[in-house]
Every structure is written in C-alpha cells, then in structure tokens.
Amino acid sequence: MTLDISGLKVSIGGKEILGGVDLRLAAGRVHGLAGESGSGKTMTGLAVLGLLPHGARVSGSIRLGERDLLTLPPKELNRVRGGEVAMVFQDPATSLHPMLTIGKQLTEHMRHHLRLGRAEAKARAVELLGKVRIPGPEEAYGRFPHQFSGGMRQRVAIAIALACSPKVLIADEPTTALDVTVQAGVLRLLRGLCDELGLAVLLVTHDLGVMSAVADEVSVMKDGLVVESGPRGQVLREPAHAYTRSLLDSLPDAELR
Amino acid sequence: MSDTTGPPPSGGAGPSSTRKEPPPSGGAGPLATRKIRRRGAHPLARFLVRRVLLAVLMAWGITLVTFVLTNLVPGDPVAANLGQRALGDPAIVAQWRAEHGLDQPLWRQYLLHLQGLLQGDLGTSQQSHRPVSQDLAEFVPATLELAGAAILVSLVLGVAFGVVAALRRDRLSDHALRVLSLIGISVPTFWLALMAFYLFFYRLQLTPGSGRVDAALGLAPAVTGMQTVDALLAGRWDIFSSAVAHLVTPALVLALYTIGLLTRFTRSAVLEVLGQDYVRAARAKGLPGRVVLFRYVLRSALVPIITVAGLAFGSLLSGTVLVEAIFAWPGIGQYAYKSATTLDLPAVMGVGLVVGVVYLVINLVVDVLYGVIDPRVRLH
Ligand SMILES: Nc1ncnc2c1ncn2[C@@H]1O[C@H](COP(=O)(O)OP(=O)(O)OP(=O)(O)O)[C@@H](O)[C@H]1O
Ligand SMILES: [Mg+2]
Fold first, then answer.
1. A251 C-alpha to center of ligand 1: Å?
2. Average pLDDT over residues A13-31
3. Does ligand 1 have an atom closer than 6 angstroms to the CB of A12?
4. Given a cut of 80, is residue B370 above it in pLDDT?
5. Nearest-CA distance B260 → chain A (Å)
6. What confidence category does residue A113 fall into, taking pLDDT thresholds of 50, 70 and 90?
7. Residue B203: left if φ>0, alpha if ψ -120 to 50, beta else—which one?
8. A GO molecular function for this record (chain A) (predicted)?
9. Ligand 1 pocket, A69 CB below 6 A?
C-alpha cells in the first residue's frame, strides 16, 4: 500500500508549521526525510496519525490506499493507528510506559486490533521479540522497560510498532537517542524488516550518514517545505538545492561513499 | 544487583524515598533473574515484608515518643486530679503517686508502660476510672467511621474532579472545578462546620443535627462500633439510613479541604502525564481513549496523587477534633480534648498511640501502593 501526502499544511495558533508538504511512500521502500531542527519533520509524521498538538489546523490530503486519513472518522482512524500505520518515536527511554511490562505493551493493541486471545498474543509477542533480536524473548516478555538498555528498548519499540503487521512505519529519528555503536544495528534491523515484510518506511533523521546507509529515496525539508526529493544517489551526489548542498558539505567526506 | 543478604531498605521510610527517575539499567541480565528465582520469594512479597518490619520498628518509636512527650508536659497530674483538700495532705499525694507509678524513675515507668502495652493494657484513665483501652474501643470506631467516610469521599471526588478538569482543560467545567477546589482549600474547617450545621440543620432542617443515629431507633448491636456497618450487619435498614444521614454533613465538611487539594494535584499530575511520550505512543497504537486514560495516564498520575493523599489524610485526622466538637460526634477527638485539658496522662498517651499508629498505617499503605503501582520501586 502506498501513503501519499500532498499539499499538507499545518498551522498552530496562527503560525504556519508546514506549508504544503508532498511525500510518497511505497511498499518495500525506505523514504528518508532529512532537514534541520524545527523544519517540521516530526509534525509531518504526527499529522499522518492525527496526533498533532491541541489546536493544530490541518489541510491537504494524506491518502492511504483509497482513504484520506485527514477526513477519517475517529473510530476508523483509531483502527488505522497501530493497525495499518505504526510509529516509532525518537527516545525509547520515554516512549515506553515505565510501569507496564514489555509483554503488556506488546500485546494490548494486538488483542484490540486483531482480537487475539491472551495465549496467541503472547506467542506472537515472543516471536516478534526474537525477530528484533532481543536475547531471551521468553524472559524479556515479563520484564519492565527499565530493565533494558537503550538500544534494546528501541528494538522493543520497533517490535511494538510491528505487532499488528502495519503497512506503513513512521520512524521519527529512531537512532538519535542511541549510542553510535548500537545505531547501526537498529538501522540494519529496520532495513531488513522493510525488505522482508514489504513495509513502506518513513525514516526521519537529520543524519545524512544514516540516510545514505539505508534510504531508497531522500527528501529534504526546510522551514515546513520539502525543498528536494528524489532517489538517494541523485539527491546525495547531485543535490539540486543549495540547502542540501550545504548539509552535505558539513559532513566528513568519507561518510557518503 | 543485590547480593544474597538482600538490599537495604531504600533510605528512609517516608514517601519521599520513592524514586521518580528510572535508575540506570545494566547488570539486570538473565543472570540476575536467575538469582532472584533461586532465592524463592516474589519481589513484591519481599518488598512487603521489608515495609511491614519497618512499620513495626516505627510503632515502637511511637510508644517512646508519646511517652517522653507526655512526661515533658509542664503541669502536675497530681494537682489536676486531686481536690484542694487532698492536695494538702502529703500522705494522700504520696499514695496517689505510688498508685499511678509516678514515684518510679522515668525509664522504669517506660518499661512498665511498654510491658502493659504488650498485654493490651494502656493504664487507667484518671477521669473515667475505666481502662483507657476500653475508652478507646468506645470512641475510636466513631472517628474511624467519620474519617473513613471523609477519606473515601475525598478520594473518589477529588480524583474524579481532577481528571475531568485536566481532560477538559480551559473549558467551563475546568474553570468551575478550579474555583471549587480553591474554595475547598481556603475555607477553614471550623467555619465550614458551623455554617453547614446552621444552614442544613437549623435553617433548612435538611439533615439531622448532632450525634450518630436517631435516639428513638437505638443503636445497632455493636460489632465494629461503626453504626453504618453494624446496622448493615444486623440488617437494620432504618438505623442504617439514619446513621448515613447523620454522617453525611460532618463527613463532607471534613472532606472538603482534601477534595480541593486532590482535585488540584490530580489535575496537574494528569496534565503532566498527558504530555508524556508514552501517552502519545499509546495513542499511536490506536488504543481506545478509555484504555489510554486508565492504563497509561492514571497509573502514572497515581504516584503523586497517593503522596498528596497520604499527607492530606493526616491533616484530615486533626480536623476531626473540630468537626466532632461541633456535630457532637462522640469520637476520639472529643476524648483527646477532654483528657488533655485534665492532664489525664494515660488517656493522652493512649490517644497519641492510636493517632501515631493510624499515621503509620496510612504511610504503610502509601508505601505499599508505590510498590504495587511502580515496578521500579519494588524491583530495586
Ligand atoms: N506543540 C507545539 N505547538 C506549537 N508549535 C510547535 C509545537 N511543537 C513544535 N512546534 C513547532 O513546529 C515546528 C516544527 O517542529 P518539528 O518538531 O516538526 O521539527 P523537527 O523537524 O522534527 O525538528 P527536530 O529535528 O528538532 O526534531 C517548529 O518550529 C516548532 O517550534
Ligand atoms: Mg523531530
């Protein structure tokens, strides 16, 4: 399934945050979204799930297959959330509830969306934990987030996002809060899952090194607008926009080869 | 991770010892899990045992403190209890002192006191000439009923109001609830008690006046000493409804401050949690709103709410003295006042002990709830 964002405008309290964003995600492809801090990357992701802050005004369209997510009634939007479009947040230290077990957080939406029984949900959760390479998935199931390291928590968050077999995954800087040594592992995992499950992935990052390692397409945002978009090789080797060039120039050369 | 002798109790006993920040992880691998298993006890069980042992230790501390404080009171119990004539006679005074153990050194008096306590003997009240334990058994249930009802009402209403105010932030209901909570916090209890008594009983005759049940109905057979409960146990609906009618006004008066306080704290606690990443993540999972509210938001918000509630219930107890006086509620507040003004030391110590133990129980409940709610408290 494809996710087609076109002419997305968002304003909060009269201030324009997004000024007409166009993005296209396709199955089995990783779409990298770069841009400086405050350019509106997170807001774009949140808009897809209808999770914008209070008082935000939205226009344009976000089409998931035949449906426009912006005009979907709340009940149906809730079925899309987690069920068809899932999200991984930037900081795994704060995006898991500290007082609920990993197992609970992995199974509750499965039981809700897929109407699985307790045992089925648990079996699937353990399988997922194995898939994101958490050692000892059976034991991990009953543990609490604080008993895992940051990298492991982000893997858990990815497992949670994948639990209901979504078609689209929005990963908002999933490796920024992690140690450099575990970043590569999490990225490789995302890439592998994308290929294996045919996910459409929006990978938000302001790290062009990350981008060149895993993205198929790359878009660059600045001040609420997409200023450049295209296949990775083209954008990173022959940037058309001055802003992209300046981003590239600030990188150590070796990283892009 | 902890060694085989078990971790020390996590510094101090009060609610303040709770960690808000997650402790640094690491070391909690499969190895640590196996170690806990081998030791056998469930982590929650070990946490509970530790807390209860600590409470027992503190109960002993309370006996010491009440004893010392009571004996530091400037004032001569002999003068307070004997008439002018008897005071003039040294033989009578000496005999009275010996009878009440006042001729012994203080440490011996304390040991005797402690020995008595262990046998359930709190001494004899110099006013009522009955065992203090008997007096307490008569007055404590009435106060427990009043304070218990007030605590229940304030918890339910305070938390509900706070949640509603937070969810409807900046709307009319939020503003109305905030004004209400401000009034609850700032109006003095004694004034409120007088006004409620005057308005509902004297002017409107909506509520029965003072006491616990209509005298005409008699009392339900005593089991717990709490009229509402005893009436229910005896199946006496007439007594039950009369007891509830008598209870409503004083309990609400007593609860209003705590309702206001809890409304306020619950509102800010819920608002803070609503802004957390994990709440947004829960929404992103497509969980229904009520699941997000109860499982994700309230669970976290409960930790600060419980802290405040525990403290507020302490001050609610001291409010009972005033409310009992105004509504002629025959509880421990009245008894405490009477014994303090007559320097009835055994009675004062008895009251001190009861109040201390009640505080202790509240603290224990708060601590245990922390452990039940937050795994980070009980697992480390
Ligand atoms: N709750 C909010 N209310 C109003 N404006 C907001 C709010 N959150 C973010 N903004 C504004 O929206 C704009 C876009 O923010 P956004 O978080 O999408 O940036 P970003 O590209 O994700 O940046 P970063 O790399 O720092 O995460 C910023 O100008 C920010 O100030
Ligand atoms: Mg962001």
1. 24
2. 94
3. yes
4. yes
5. 27
6. very high
7. alpha
8. ATP hydrolysis activity
9. no
Average pLDDT, chain A: 90
CA-CA distance, A99 to B273, in Å (whole number)? 13
B301, B329, B357: which is the final residue of a domain?
A: B329
Total domain count, chain B:
2
Q: For residue B22, what pLDDT band results from cuts at 50, 70 and 90?
A: very low
Would you call B280 an interface residue with chain A, using a CB distance cutoff of 8 Å? yes
Pairing assessment for the beta strands A15-25 and A3-12 based on DSSP bridges: antiparallel
Confidence grade of residue A24 (pLDDT, cut at 50, 70, 90): very high
The mean pLDDT value for A70-98 works out to: 93
Question: Three-state DSSP class for B34?
Answer: helix
Q: Which residues of A199-227 are buried (b: 16+ CB within 10 A; e: fewer)?
A: bbbbbbbbbbebbbbbbbbbbbbbebebb
Say how far residue A134 (Cα) sits from the centre of its chain: 20
Partner residue opposite A97 with nearest CB, options B286, B296, B379 = B296
Residue B112 is assigned to a structural domain of this protein: yes
Q: Give which of A1, A152, A5, A168 is closest to A82, Cα–Cα.
A: A168
Do residue A147 and residue B25 have CB atoms under 8 angstroms apart? yes
pLDDT in tens, A187-198: 888 898 899 989
Q: Of B93, B121, B149, which marks where a domain is finished? A: B121
- Which range marks the domain in which residue B102 is found? 75-121
Question: Same domain for B204 and B309?
Answer: yes
State pLDDT tens for residues A217-245. 999 999 999 999 999 888 888 888 888 88
**Count of domains observed in chain A:** 1
Considering the domain boundaries, does residue A250 fall inside one?
Answer: no
Give, using CA atoms, the residue closest to atom 28 of ligand 1: A38
Q: Domain of residue A12: give its range.
A: 3-229
Contact A82 B286 (CB under 8 A): yes
- pLDDT for A108 beyond 90: yes
Calculate how far, in angstroms, residue A235's C-alpha sits from the geometric centre of ligand 1.
24
Alpha-carbon gap, residue B297 to B300, rounded angstroms: 6
The ligand with the least distance to the CA atom of A19 is 1
Establish if B209 belongs to a structural domain.
yes
Q: Is residue A237 one of the residues assigned to a domain? A: no
Please report whether residue B325 resides in a domain. Answer: yes
Which CATH number is B215's domain given?
1.10.3720.10
Q: Do the domain assignments include residue B103?
A: yes
pTM, entire model = 0.80
Domain membership flag for residue A215: yes
Chain CA centroid to CA B3, Å: 36
Residues B255 and B159 reside in one and the same domain: yes
Q: What is the 3-state secondary structure (H, E, C) of B145-163?
A: HHHHHHHHHHHHHHHHHHH
Q: Looking at chain A, which residue has its C-alpha nearest residue B285? A: A82
CATH number, domain with residue A114: 3.40.50.300
Tell me the ligand closest to A222's alpha carbon.
Answer: 1
State which ligand 1 atom lies nearest to the alpha carbon of A173.
27
Query: Does A234 map to a domain?
Result: no
